Amino acid sequence: MLSEEAANLVLALALRFTPAMAWLKAFHVVFVVTWFAGLFYLPRLFVYHVITADAAGRARLELMERRLFAMMTLGGALAVLLGVSLVVAAPGYLAFGWLRAKLVLVAALVGYHAWCYRLMRALAAGGAVHSQRWYRFFNELPGLLLIAIVVLAVVKP
User: Fold this and answer.
1) How is the chain split into domains, by residue range?
2) What is the pTM of this model?
3) Among candidate residues 79, 135, 133, the one with its CA nearest the CA of residue 107
4) How many Å apart are CA 113 and CA 108, to the nearest integer?
């Protein structure tokens, strides 16, 4: 008889190759890319927002920030929804430490997303909460999370 861990592994591997799982994974990746595109670009817009002095330029940046935030929120929500669907379809994957670590990093990414929203609202209200240098540093955080998430998902250490 197989141990519970071995049974979970067999189940996870069997479900991994079904056509439905392949479609879920494909669209999960598409929406992850959409989400990260926004997470990489929105803080860059914050940098421009802080250094822009004229009212028309700030208004244009606020509009761009709101539109980008809406698109990245849609991408993030669908990425998370499809990720949850993958786990529901193959709960045996939760036995793997790499997936649990990845989910912690995704939770951090959701927190970063919410932080972007708060920063966007503060900038729209007229407050340059941080310096342009701070926003440039802030812009690097999703890249670090992306590296760690991809390594966990591909290498599965």
Assistant:
1) 4-155
2) 0.87
3) 79
4) 9
